[in-house]
Design brief:
single chain, alpha/beta, Rossmann fold, 15 helices, 43% helix, globular
């Protein structure tokens, strides 16, 4: 795993971002979700280096990257600030134009990255989410039950932090098991827990969700009529909440004037780990075969 990568710490405006970098070709930025780190790409990362130069960071507040404290307006963990980190990483690496793929919270950062840096993001691959605004607007009993963590983690500081700190292993395992339908993470769970259990990271991840329910929605509403002009791919697990509760292709079509490609895989939420071969093929097919970006 990650045999073709080297570790880097890249200085951005607010601090340091940890990245693994490997491969040659068109640059591809991969963004992880909650409650994980860059390690979620471990089953497909090495294969992707055969087609792309792959940059795999830990988002701010996760893994080995910086963990700034939250603020009252939750700006520090707004997707705009998290996307700015990623843009600065790519600029430091001299990549003016690049592909982006993101899963879960990382997909929300990827979406904001494409919105705020339109001339840089050539195409966007989204793994198992619909846009935040659409999801909150569809809230009902079923949504609130399935996504109860959305409403727990946004509670005022530091109620959810204290609750999770009592047993971070239990919380992490519940997230991984519940959202994957019981998939076995035994070989990598220790890596996720190593970073997630830190009080600073528990706080950061709660702030990520608090921002998602406040300032991120403000930014999304302001940009609602400003469509992207790039192709978007959406891959989702047909057994998971996105597959059961939403029509992902139709929803994402509202966000771009270009084509939207989509496919459901026979799994739950963690598509890159539950169905790595299929996820790998879809990502390569989208970025390499369907698109011919400039240098």
């Amino acid at each position: 795993m990650f045999k073709k990568f080297k570790d880097h710490f890249i200085k951005v405006q607010r601090g340091k971002i940890f990245c693994k970098i490997g491969g040659y070709g068109k640059p591809l930025l991969l963004l992880h979700g909650y409650p994980q780190t860059h390690y979620m790409w471990h089953k497909i990362a090495d294969k992707l280096t055969e087609n792309f130069k792959v940059i795999i960071p830990d988002l701010r507040g996760y893994g080995r990257s910086m963990t700034p404290r939250g603020d009252k307006a939750h700006i520090n963990y707004s997707k705009r600030e998290m996307a700015k980190d990623m843009f600065q990483v790519m600029q430091k690496l001299k990549h003016k134009k690049f592909f982006v793929s993101g899963h879960d919270r990382g997909a929300r950062v990827a979406h904001r990255l494409a919105r705020d840096y339109r001339s840089s993001v050539l195409a966007l691959s989204i793994l198992d989410i619909c846009p935040t605004l659409d999801m909150y607007n569809s809230t009902n009993k079923d949504f609130a039950t399935g996504y109860f963590h959305w409403f727990f983690l946004i509670q005022p500081y530091d109620f959810p932090e204290q609750m999770i700190k009592k047993n971070p292993k239990l919380w992490l395992r519940n997230c991984l098991k519940k959202w994957s339908g019981g998939f076995n993470f035994k070989d990598v769970e220790h890596h996720y827990l190593k970073y997630f259990k830190k009080p600073s990271h528990i706080h950061s991840s709660c702030e990520d969700y608090r921002a998602g329910a406040t300032i991120d929605l403000e930014h999304d509403r302001k940009d609602l009529n400003k469509k992207l002009h790039i192709p978007i791919q959406i891959i989702w697990g047909k057994k998971g909440r996105i597959g059961k509760n939403f029509k992902p292709i139709q929803i994402w079509k509202k966000y771009t004037t270009n084509k939207v490609y989509g496919k459901a895989l026979d799994c739950n939420h963690f598509v890159a780990e539950e169905k790595p071969k299929e996820t790998l093929n879809e990502i390569i097919n989208f970025f390499k075969k369907k698109l011919q970006p400039p240098n």
